[in-house]
Amino acid sequence: MAAITYDVVVIGAGPVGENIADRVVQGGLTAAIVERELVGGECSYWACMPTKVLLRSGAALRAARQLPGAREAVTGELDVAAVLRRRDSFASDWKDDGQVSWLGQAGIRLHRGQGRISSARVVEVTGEDGTTTTLTARHAVVVATGSGALVPDLPGLRESAPWTSRAAASASTVPARLAIIGGGVVASEMATAFTGLGSSVTVLARDGVLPTAEPFVGELVTEALRDAGATVRLGAEAAAVERDADGTVRITLTDGEQVEADELLVAIGRTPNTEDLGLDAVGLKPGAWLTVDDTLRVVGEDGAPVGGGWLYAAGDVNHRVLLTHQGKYQARAVGDVIVARAEGEPVEGGRWGRHAATADERAVPQVIFTEPEVASVGLTAAAAEAAGLRIRVVDYDLSATAGSALHAEGYRGDARMVVDEDRKVIVGFTLAGPDVAELLHAATIAVAGEVPLDRLWHAVPAFPTVSEVWLRLLEAYGR
Ligand SMILES: Cc1cc2nc3c(=O)[nH]c(=O)nc-3n(C[C@H](O)[C@H](O)[C@H](O)COP(=O)(O)OP(=O)(O)OC[C@H]3O[C@@H](n4cnc5c(N)ncnc54)[C@H](O)[C@@H]3O)c2cc1C
Ligand SMILES: NC(=O)c1ccc[n+]([C@@H]2O[C@H](COP(=O)([O-])OP(=O)(O)OC[C@H]3O[C@@H](n4cnc5c(N)ncnc54)[C@H](O)[C@@H]3O)[C@@H](O)[C@H]2O)c1
């Protein structure tokens, strides 16, 4: 049994783990990273990237069809095989050689296998051949093990071999009929993608479509899915599932109705990858999300850092925000704070300090790549009210700008700005419409920078762009 000591040991080589290790090495420390599957994690092979490839060609085709002149040039249908080939290439054919070589160049040592914490600062790595390596960390162990798909305990579901997001993202054929349980981000994106690829899709959205977004978002996405030929059943709840000998999946709903499909995708949220991580060795509960303080140290039930502060958690596994870019933001904070503590430098862990992931609370951006695209940052009106803020909500029809009229015939979209009336700053911004993704960062800067509305009047949007919605919202708010 080999034993090696590093300054920092990171468990999990997803986007977050990679960034943590890189940051501490850049800060002058040594780092090892432990990975049981593919270096690059969920995002690279089964989540963000492959799913966006499945969506992108359909979006480009729709965009061309919305423009006279371009529309006439589109004479065929989507080439599904070409889309799947492009997806395979973006997933590097599910091989991680490229990312492994990046780790080498970055000076990060890779240990392949299942990582388990065995005692304070010690991680045992069990390789596929059963050999064990003991890694000891001088300064910190960081858990960046991510999350997996949550599958509910419905009668017959597991036996019916349902798809989770992994199977959908890596599908090698397109099912004729696809049923989806869930109405969240994965369900909405995959319903859009597979409808575009030619499946007849049925969405069983018990709690509605994108229910945590501003209400107009779910309405627009539902309408677009239905226009594209999908069936969206709001309030429908699955009670039992069975798969026939011929492969047909039959979902019985709580109202007794049945839905038939060739594949069933379950997309109802995530569960943390902490089941087999040795958490019990440090007094934590296996299978639970890891709670962290502002500098991302894992805390126990008493709120104090576990073991005096050598254990950190970043990315999906701490359940703050389940998004790649936000996990990587945490990675920069956690990497830098580990270096600062190791060097005996001051920790800047206060609000908006360089070692605190403050944006997780109030300034998280997200793009949902549905038709139409949804781009949001900060709080919805409902969330702001629940947080006790005195707000004013301003809405604007996104199709009413000169830029949107130019962008596409029949452009449909909406925008909402949520203003904190006590501070006169924007705390939430949501856009839904074709190609709004790239408009989001302006709003993120306004929310994270807490830019006063008075100053925003001086940020003039160029004519004729969709960004003119900023001016229209300010005019509607008044000054
Ligand atoms: C279908 C889908 C689409 C998504 N699209 C987007 C998107 O467009 N944009 C976005 O921002 N986010 C998106 N997300 C979310 C994004 O994938 C996650 O937020 C991100 O992958 C989290 O990164 P992570 O490094 O924390 O975890 P992961 O990417 O899950 O990586 C964790 C790694 O740890 C390894 N691991 C786990 N346990 C152990 C162990 N005990 N020992 C060794 N290794 C271990 C795993 O094998 C894995 O490689 C999507 C998610 C899904 C499911
Ligand atoms: N473009 C992106 O940013 C992107 C894309 C995909 C996924 N993600 C991230 O991945 C994470 C997981 O996505 P997700 O869609 O699985 O989760 P989610 O939390 O977005 O949505 C899950 C949905 O399932 C519903 N639900 C929960 N339990 C249910 C049940 N038993 N039966 C029926 N419906 C049920 C919930 O009401 C919710 O609407 C999200 O946090 C998301 O941020 C991001």
Automatic annotation (TrEMBL):
Gene3D superfamilies: 3.30.390.30, FAD/NAD(P)-binding domain. Binds 1 FAD per subunit. NAD(+) binds at residues 182-189, 269. It comes from Amycolatopsis jiangsuensis. This is Dihydrolipoamide dehydrogenase. One of its GO terms (biological process) is 2-oxoglutarate metabolic process. FAD binds at residues 52, 115, 145-147, 316. Disulfide bonds join 43-48. Its EC number is 1.8.1.4. Its cofactor is FAD. Residues 364-470 form the Pyridine nucleotide-disulphide oxidoreductase dimerisation domain. GO terms for molecular function: dihydrolipoyl dehydrogenase (NADH) activity; flavin adenine dinucleotide binding. It is an enzyme of class 1 (oxidoreductase). The keyword Transport does not apply. Keywords: FAD, Flavoprotein, NAD, Nucleotide-binding, Oxidoreductase. Residues 6-327 form the FAD/NAD(P)-binding domain. It holds the Pfam family Pyr_redox_2. Belongs to the class-I pyridine nucleotide-disulfide oxidoreductase family.
